[in-house]
Amino acid sequence: MTSRIAPTADVDESAVIGDGSSIWHLAQIRENAVLGENCIVGRGAYVGTGVRMGKNCKIQNNALVYEPASLEDGVFIGPAVVLTNDYFPRAVNPDGSLKSGHDWEPVGVTMKEGCSLGARSVCVAPVTIGRWATVAAGAVVTKDVPDFALVAGVPARRIKWVGKAGVPLLDVGNGEWKCPNTGETYIETDGRLRPAGEDMEEN
Questions:
Q1: 31 and 109 fall within a common domain
Q2: Which domain holds residue 169?
Q3: Any signal peptide, and if so, which residues (predicted)?
Q4: Who is most buried in 17, 137, 149, 198, counting CB within 10 A?
Q5: Contact, 68 vs 85, CB < 8 A?
Q6: Which pTM was predicted?
């Protein structure tokens, strides 16, 4: 199995593209970026220097994934999403000189297994998006998102719990939640959710 790279894509020679991955029209993959197997990078998307992606990730059209972002397996990034990387963005230093790469310290967004970012959402680094969490379209994430949380708004706040299928869970009482699609059950403890049978310490 080999990767597919559109002739119009800009992929640096030092980037590592996993088997089965597809890089589409006008996408840019910067120096030392690493993409796992079976990833998809859509039209006009940007993957910054040294970004790390696991396998089976999807980055949709015109999304901007700035370094040093880190994506675990199965992450979804919707169209026109932005992952920022600067606490205090400025084009120039206080003396008016143009900033270079040495004049600031980048901070990244960490995306855990299976999580998803809806279209045009923004993650203001440094934040972590938990396992299988979902960020609604247009949301602005300014703090860490718990595993299995659905967050929405500006700034983003948790409004529901979701399971691995991405569907809102049903409250069945006594801190238990159930996925209407898969039947899987989850346990809520102290504002955190985990699949039934999984120890909280494993999160």
A1: yes
A2: 165-203
A3: none
A4: 149
A5: yes
A6: 0.94
